[in-house]
Write a structure and sequence with these properties.
single chain; three-stranded mixed β-sheet; 33% helix; globular; 13 helices; Rossmann fold; 12 strands
């Protein structure tokens, strides 16, 4: 359905400072000034842990933005990141949109074709890549003619890094060559802050572009009135349903407010997954999940034996994950447990506790389903 365009009517002006743009440069200042001694804990490239405070990266963020600007990055430039959850990733996450450019999170778990598609579809022209992921970047670079600049992130000096990437720069060298102070532009809050693409489980990956306003005002996207939806699920006798956390958590809160708890016997499970978990993630989780379950658990995980899925194959790991609390990255609620716990006065927040599986599990992608 096409959106109806209506004229905007301006009333009496408010005194709420609404002329100030909600953009993420204010977050950079606020973090360093107000929470400067709060620590950020991150993984190092060697697999260990390190930490620094919000005040520590402030100058590096500024230098990074100046460096990007010197390479031609500016308003509406799309800059991709292929990196782990590192401190440099954090710095770029602030520096790129601070220039009114757009951060494109490139999922390193995607296959080469999908990764190339995301770069092409988004219009990414600059990519920052961790040295440990150079083999991935070099494999897909020939299919990314629109990428004109590569930035390599590493603790090693550039002369010790061997790469076939064209027009490659060293992140730390760029920071060292630029000033620690910057005059941030006043970015229109409706401008895109970053792009987020799906994992391509139903066709090619699909992207959405979040605005600065959406980032500065977190929590806006929360279903406030799920009572009618919950009532409908109960009235229609739904057995299995799926919904994002912004939907099912309010549903649980709604159920908590009811004096007479509904009969949820027919509702097998309510999943918090927003989409099918991609095959590569499933292959990562298989050995860890199976190690957590007994033979009886496996048999009890499915209705009518093993479920099957076109994405996953002979053993549907997604349904296995969805059938057990606390062993998947998605928050999953088994409503038989919900009914019992809610009747005992438990809080809905207890149902979103997630068990973190090992991060060093081998990734096997050789088998194709």
């Amino acid at each position: 359905m096409a959106m109806i365009s209506r004229p905007i009517v301006t009333g009496f002006p408010s005194t709420m400072g609404d002329d100030i743009q909600l953009n993420t440069t204010t977050l950079i200042h606020h973090g360093a000034r107000t929470h400067g001694d709060h620590e950020i804990v991150y993984r190092t490239s060697s697999g260990g842990w390190d930490r620094y405070t919000y005040a520590d990266p402030y100058a590096r963020i500024n230098r990074g933005a100046n460096a990007l600007r010197s390479l031609g990055v500016g308003p509406a430039t799309l800059v991709g990141i292929i990196d782990w959850n590192s401190r440099r990733h954090f710095e770029l996450y602030r520096a790129i949109p601070g220039l009114a450019a757009v951060t494109v999170q490139l999922n390193l778990r995607l296959g080469p074709e999908d990764l190339s598609y995301v770069v092409s579809d988004s219009g990414t022209s600059v990519i920052c890549v961790d040295e440990s992921l150079l083999p991935l970047a070099e494999a897909v670079a020939p299919s990314m003619p629109g990428v004109t600049t590569w930035i390599i992130m590493s603790d090693k000096p550039m002369n010790e890094i061997h790469t076939s990437l064209p027009n490659a720069h060293h992140y730390e060298d760029l920071l060292a060559a630029n000033e620690p102070d910057i005059e941030w532009p006043e970015v229109d809050e409706r401008s895109a802050y970053g792009a987020c693409y799906t994992t391509g489980t139903t066709g090619r990956p699909k992207g959405v572009f979040y605005s600065h306003r959406a980032i500065v005002r977190p929590g806006r996207h929360y279903a406030e009135d799920t009572g009618p939806l919950t009532d409908a699920l109960i009235a229609e006798g739904v057995t299995i349903t799926n919904g994002a956390p912004v939907i099912f958590i309010p549903m649980l809160h709604y159920i908590e407010t009811l004096k007479v708890k509904p009969d949820l016997t027919q509702l097998r499970l309510l999943s918090g997954a927003t989409e099918t978990t991609p095959l590569v993630t499933m292959n990562t989780y298989k050995p860890n999940v199976l190690a957590c379950l007994s033979a009886k658990d496996l048999l009890d995980s499915f209705i009518d034996g093993y479920w099957r899925s076109g994405d996953v194959g002979t053993i549907d790991m997604e349904n296995l994950l969805l059938s057990h609390l606390g062993i998947a990255e998605a928050a999953v609620i088994e409503l038989n447990d919900v009914r019992a716990h809610l009747s005992s006065g438990a809080n809905a927040q207890q149902f979103t506790q997630i068990r973190q599986l090992p991060t060093d599990a081998p990734i096997t992608t050789s088998k194709k389903y």
